[in-house]
Amino acid sequence: MIGGARRKGIHLDRKILKEIVDTNEKKRFSLDVDGSRIRANQGHSIAVDVELEKKEPPTFLYHGTATRFYESIQKEGLKKMNRQHVHLSADQTTAVKVGTRHGKPIVLIVRAGDMYESGYRFFLSENGVWLTEEVPARYIGLSEP
Fold first, then answer.
1. What count of Cα atoms within 13 Å lies in the side-chain half-sphere of residue 30?
2. Count of other CB atoms within 10 angstroms of residue 99
């Protein structure tokens, strides 16, 4: 990582990498054991092995989105789209923040416990984001404000 950045004219050292990890508001990154490599805590639009472990989710999780997507979600459920996983939050406050980034927010409640019992896999990233492959519409409701 550090060598690759230097070849592109960017000065990085372990101290700078640690600062990037420690100050990132969303905790998107972590360092390896010796602090020489940085990695994403969850993959996004490119295939990244983020070494996620399967984990049993809480009974309910939340998904923040914009109101304009609600009708489609009611029909088709939540899909990962260009990401590696559907991202879910453990609390409504975080879901509202996520939804606000996409327009007028709404918060969906996901019956994650029921999904898990039905064989769906869940993962918890190091920064507290719950991940799954998809959320069928039958497991989704509109959360109360």
1. 11
2. 22
> Quick one: tokens of 8?
């592109």
45: CB partners within 8 A, 6+ apart: 82, 83
The ranges assigned to domains in the chain are 2-40, 61-142
The set of residues, in sequence order, having a beta carbon less than 8 Å from that of 34 and lying 6+ positions away, is none
pLDDT in tens, the chain (145 residues): 566 677 777 777 777 666 766 776 666 666 666 766 666 655 544 455 456 778 999 999 999 999 999 999 999 999 988 778 899 999 999 999 989 988 999 999 999 999 999 999 999 988 889 999 999 999 999 987 6
Q: Are 130 and 80 in contact (CB under 8 A)?
A: no
What 8-state DSSP symbol labels residue 67? Answer: G
Which parts of 24-128 fold into alpha helices (H)?
70-76, 92-100, 112-117
Q: What pLDDT is stored for residue 100 in this prediction?
A: 92
State the CATH architecture for 61-142: Alpha-Beta Barrel (3.20)
For residues 55 and 124, is the Cβ–Cβ distance under 8 A? yes
